[in-house]
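haha ok so turns out i had the wrong file open the whole time. this is the CORRECT one, sorry everyone. sequence first:
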Amino acid sequence: MGDGHAGHGHGKILGGGIVGPNAGDLIDEVALAIEMGPSAVHIGKTIHPHPTLGKSIGMAAEVAHGSCRL
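then structure:
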């Protein structure tokens, strides 16, 4: 995830790639983000239950906008 502008972007999700046995369970949130246009900040602030695979999407969004706290 990211905005493709190396820190100078607007945070809009332009695309994403997921590889692994549960990729199909995760790609829907990325596809929705591309279609609906929320920023990485919005996705990062959305509740993602822990521990779930979906939490990785929320964390990736937090990394993209620099607010990830592990």
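Helices lie at 23-36, 40-45, 54-65.
again sry for the mixup
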